[in-house]
Specification:
mainly alpha
Length: about 90
């Protein structure tokens, strides 16, 4: 489920970035993209595409850090909202 997979993927991206494994950053972004697109989270679909295509080029840069921060903020908010909705339905 997205509420489990997205935060785990985000942590993988952060860990890979800290380890300078930019190929993995791109791979995880690529893996997360379909779920984000299916849920219609348009604010980060382009972020994930950019990370997928360019993480190895950007490497340790402010731009890639900004993309990761944006991803972190949006995933955190969406997961919070989804969990709230799930609890309200229970």
């Amino acid at each position: 489920m997205f509420t489990d997979l997205a935060p785990a993927g985000l942590e993988e991206i952060k860990t890979a970035y800290q380890a300078n494994d930019f190929k993995k950053v791109g791979q995880v972004a690529h893996r997360l993209h379909p779920s984000v697109a299916t849920l219609g989270i348009h604010s980060i679909t382009d972020v994930l595409k950019d990370m997928d295509r360019n993480a190895e080029t950007y490497q340790a840069s402010q731009h890639l850090e900004d993309l990761i921060a944006t991803l972190d903020n949006v995933i955190t908010e969406v997961v919070s909202q989804l969990r709230t909705q799930t609890h309200m339905r229970s």
